[in-house]
Design goal:
single chain, mainly alpha, 261 residues, 9 helices
């Protein structure tokens, strides 16, 4: 579980690093400029990190499923080498799938004012600035949504249905609470991530919803990576215990310095 959390942390660092610096520049200067190559690079790493998180959250849901539904087999099923392989597959799939339609988008012809009414290079603003037909890109993105979005979401839902059914069969309330606590953090992260992601791309387009769409985009590009460590830290006893030990050591160290003075 901690290995997968570390991989999630890498993704949460990659996404704001890709989006936030240019966003601050745009906000401070009431607009900004970016080259076509820079825009495509930003879009590529943005999509890759989002796709990776979809795959990783799916693997993490399977990890919780094995831990709760088959606890005696957990150490044999989720071995260290298998966890590394699963994480590597998530990274490879994310960057490969994203590369396919990024190459197709880069072949489009952009003309006109080339103004992106957004704080980063997203799919819809890029397609709106294209002078050539975007049918192939839209069809390709639609096809790629199945392996990168809908299939992972389906696996997560099935995993949690089986997890909930298994937990409800427990006789002890204490056992139920412990089981729920082991997967509650992941369930909260999944809910926030998919709610904001699906709201942006399934919400009706139009001038009235443009600012709301920007707000939702801000949530899953900045707020979600910010809140993920807090969720896992506050709901994890081991992390809270380690944090208390660090605070106590720092307090003791500061007291020793004051005493030596």
């Amino acid at each position: 579980m901690y290995f997968f959390i570390s991989q999630l942390s890498i993704s949460d660092i990659l996404l704001p690093t890709d989006i936030v610096p240019n966003m601050f520049y745009i906000l401070l200067n009431n607009g900004g400029f970016i080259t076509v190559n820079g825009c495509m690079t930003q879009f590529y790493f943005f999509c890759a990190s989002e796709a990776f998180e979809c795959f990783l959250l799916t693997v993490m849901s399977y990890d919780r499923y094995v831990a709760i539904c088959n606890p005696l087999r957990y150490t044999s099923v989720m071995r260290s080498d298998r966890c590394v392989i699963l994480a590597a597959i998530c990274w490879i799939l994310a960057f490969s799938i994203t590369l396919m339609y990024c190459i197709t988008i880069s072949m489009l012809t952009f003309c006109g004012p080339n103004i992106i009414d957004h704080f980063f290079c997203d799919l819809v603003p890029l397609l709106e600035n294209s002078c050539s037909s975007t049918y192939i890109v839209e069809f390709e993105v639609f096809i790629m949504c199945f392996p990168s979005l809908f299939i992972p979401l389906t696996v997560i839902i099935i995993s949690y249905i089986r997890i909930i059914v298994t937990i409800l069969r427990f006789q002890s309330n204490i056992s139920r609470q412990k089981a729920f606590s082991t997967c509650s953090s992941h369930l909260i992260v999944v809910s926030i991530f998919y709610f904001t992601l699906l709201s942006v791309y399934l919400f009706p387009k139009g001038e009235k919803t443009l600012n709301f769409s920007k707000l939702l985009s801000l949530l899953y590009t900045v707020f979600t990576p910010l809140i993920n460590p807090i969720i896992y830290s506050l709901r994890n006893k081991d992390i809270k215990k380690s944090l208390h030990e660090i605070i106590n050591k720092c307090a003791k160290f500061s007291n020793d310095i004051i005493f030596s003075r």
